[in-house]
Amino acid sequence: MALQANGSGMDLPKLLLVEDDSSVSLLLSAELKRRGLDVVSAKSGTEALAKLTAEPFDIVATDLRLGDMDGLDVLAAARKFRPEAAGIVITGHGSITNAVSAIKAGAYDYLTKPVEIDELHLVIQKALEHRGLVREVNRLREEVKDKFSFEGIVYTGPAMARVLDLVRKVAVTEATVLIQGESGTGKELIARAIHEKSPRRAGSFVAINCGALPEGLLESELFGHVRGAFTGAERNKRGLFEEAGGGTLFLDEISETTPSLQVKLLRALQEGEIRRVGDNHPIKVSVRLVAATNKDLAKLSREGKFREDLYYRLKVFPVNLPPLRERVDDILPLSEHFLRKAAKKIGRPPVRLSPRAAAAMKAYSWPGNVRELEHAMERVMILASGPEIASGDLPPEIQQPPEGVAAPSKGRTLEEIEREHILAVLRDCGNNQADAAKRLGIARNTLWRKLKELGLAPAKKPSV
To answer: I want to staple 184 with a disulfide (CB 3.0 to 4.6 A). Which of 149, 224, 353, 369 is the partner?
Structure first.
């Protein structure tokens, strides 16, 4: 099996071999190089430290007893200077105590001399795989942290600033939160952000859409069931209240629950205990509940369509998310964010919105809110042929001006529209014709010719 470094693709995994016995060092180095490793040797701890500070390594394999220092000191230095490098201890003085010390010092594994090259090769392979998994876990953690932290929520306007100020304050408490807002406004994103900033962030975040399942199945999903509770219940099953123990349970579309299920949810909130379907024994649970709805729960409770006592138990801390049409200042920053995201997803350079496309984006009412905006940007990113998205590249419903508003081109000639667009792009580019030409998707000489036709070009033609 070929070894591969977790990073630069074709680069060989780089190993620092610290061994004061020259014959052993030469033998191991030659064999490991033959098996696809880039091996750098050090004959002492001092030499190893110098190399660790000078260049990166994927693996550090060191003898335990060196002439000038202990191999554990080398591992400690590796953890300090190259924390992603996996450590392996090789020694002729094997003991349980030494092995425990090596593992505590951060070694991935511990081998005793004489070392079988196949065994060492296998340990190196496993250490590289482990290192790759650690990197991936760290990457995913950072991705989750970025995506669901308040700092990762894209906004510039005051509407979301006010919302996030409230969310920051409630996140650090144990209060039940009710998030209210239209479909597509990002209710689950806010719920996850609350979890990530809460004292329960080390626990699980478990989400379920209450409107996606029939009552019987939803009850089983939430509370679990015991064997024989119904046809097909062949074993005991933990519910989501138990799965979210110590963490956060997010109930989306809470308004879609039935009155009988609402009674059980109320008991779970008030008593901190549940009963699995088919079981009379209560189970204590410790979860923070965050619920969400796109309906007016106050109105539903007044009409008798939602339990009033559960409503008041849920709205300990209400958070109302504004629709995108009330966040006009956020439309373009969100658009740019989703364009970058879509570009990365399909592996192409990012593009930008033209001034007229940007104006159309801000004029549109966005009935589907942020979700609709994200899907629209993914679509135009796929269809875009140049570095700039023109208004004609947008979905038809976004191009269409709102009812009662005259189209921008009404009463004007094509030459006037072209002139206005070119001037707008030039202003955006600080009158830099090279940048403007790139944004317009035309050659610089073509731009100069158009400017000349419009009476805007300088006398001298630009050099190519």
So the answer is: 369
